[in-house]
Amino acid sequence: RCVEVIELFFAFLGSVAGNLALTLGARGGVYIGGGIVPRLGDWIDRSTFRERFIAKGRFRAYLDAIPTWLIHAETSPALIGAARALDEL
Fold first, then answer.
1. Measured between alpha carbons, how far is residue 73 from residues 36, 43, 69, 76, 79 in Å?
2. DSSP symbols for the chain
Protein backbone atom coordinates (compact mmCIF):
# COMPACT_ATOMS: atom_id res chain seq x y z
CA ARG A 1 0.00 0.00 0.00
CA CYS A 2 2.85 2.40 0.72
CA VAL A 3 4.25 1.89 -2.78
CA GLU A 4 0.81 2.56 -4.25
CA VAL A 5 0.57 5.82 -2.30
CA ILE A 6 3.95 6.99 -3.60
CA GLU A 7 2.99 6.06 -7.17
CA LEU A 8 -0.28 7.99 -6.87
CA PHE A 9 1.54 10.96 -5.34
CA PHE A 10 3.92 11.22 -8.30
CA ALA A 11 1.11 10.68 -10.81
CA PHE A 12 -0.90 13.53 -9.28
CA LEU A 13 2.19 15.71 -9.00
CA GLY A 14 2.94 15.14 -12.69
CA SER A 15 -0.61 16.07 -13.70
CA VAL A 16 -0.64 19.24 -11.61
CA ALA A 17 2.88 20.28 -12.66
CA GLY A 18 1.96 19.77 -16.32
CA ASN A 19 -1.19 21.85 -15.91
CA LEU A 20 0.77 24.65 -14.25
CA ALA A 21 3.53 24.54 -16.87
CA LEU A 22 0.90 24.82 -19.59
CA THR A 23 -1.03 27.58 -17.81
CA LEU A 24 2.04 29.65 -16.91
CA GLY A 25 4.06 28.96 -20.08
CA ALA A 26 7.05 27.61 -18.15
CA ARG A 27 9.19 27.06 -21.25
CA GLY A 28 12.45 27.32 -19.30
CA GLY A 29 11.60 24.38 -17.09
CA VAL A 30 9.77 23.31 -13.98
CA TYR A 31 11.78 23.08 -10.76
CA ILE A 32 10.51 20.78 -8.02
CA GLY A 33 11.76 21.18 -4.49
CA GLY A 34 10.46 21.02 -0.98
CA GLY A 35 10.74 18.42 1.72
CA ILE A 36 9.05 15.35 0.25
CA VAL A 37 10.13 14.86 -3.36
CA PRO A 38 13.92 15.23 -2.90
CA ARG A 39 13.81 12.69 -0.06
CA LEU A 40 12.15 10.11 -2.30
CA GLY A 41 15.20 10.11 -4.57
CA ASP A 42 14.91 7.86 -7.61
CA TRP A 43 11.19 7.19 -7.14
CA ILE A 44 10.35 10.11 -9.41
CA ASP A 45 12.38 8.55 -12.26
CA ARG A 46 10.55 5.22 -11.92
CA SER A 47 7.13 6.81 -11.55
CA THR A 48 4.56 8.01 -14.08
CA PHE A 49 5.39 11.64 -13.20
CA ARG A 50 6.80 12.58 -16.60
CA GLU A 51 4.13 10.70 -18.56
CA ARG A 52 1.39 12.46 -16.59
CA PHE A 53 3.25 15.78 -16.98
CA ILE A 54 3.05 15.62 -20.79
CA ALA A 55 -0.33 13.84 -21.11
CA LYS A 56 -2.28 16.91 -22.22
CA GLY A 57 -3.64 15.89 -25.61
CA ARG A 58 -2.69 18.28 -28.38
CA PHE A 59 -0.24 20.07 -26.06
CA ARG A 60 1.87 16.94 -25.55
CA ALA A 61 4.72 18.06 -27.83
CA TYR A 62 4.77 21.52 -26.21
CA LEU A 63 5.06 20.01 -22.72
CA ASP A 64 7.54 17.35 -23.82
CA ALA A 65 9.97 20.16 -24.69
CA ILE A 66 9.77 21.57 -21.13
CA PRO A 67 12.43 20.09 -18.84
CA THR A 68 11.68 19.17 -15.24
CA TRP A 69 14.33 19.53 -12.57
CA LEU A 70 14.56 18.23 -9.03
CA ILE A 71 16.17 20.64 -6.56
CA HIS A 72 18.69 19.00 -4.22
CA ALA A 73 19.94 21.54 -1.70
CA GLU A 74 21.48 21.41 1.75
CA THR A 75 20.27 24.94 2.51
CA SER A 76 16.71 26.01 1.74
CA PRO A 77 16.56 27.60 -1.75
CA ALA A 78 13.78 29.87 -0.45
CA LEU A 79 16.02 31.23 2.29
CA ILE A 80 18.90 31.75 -0.13
CA GLY A 81 16.56 33.67 -2.46
CA ALA A 82 15.21 35.78 0.41
CA ALA A 83 18.74 36.61 1.56
CA ARG A 84 19.74 37.63 -1.95
CA ALA A 85 16.64 39.83 -2.27
CA LEU A 86 17.50 41.54 1.02
CA ASP A 87 21.06 42.14 -0.18
CA GLU A 88 19.67 44.02 -3.19
CA LEU A 89 17.61 46.45 -1.07
1. 13, 18, 12, 7, 11
2. -HHHHHHHHHHHHHHHHHHHHHHHT-TT-EEE-SSSGGGGTTHHHHSSHHHHHH--GGGHHHHHTS-EEE---SS-HHHHHHHHHHHT-
Average pLDDT, the chain: 91
Give pLDDT tens digits for 48-80: 999 999 999 999 999 999 999 998 877 777 888
Class of domain 2-87: alpha beta
Domain chopping of the chain, boundaries = 2-87
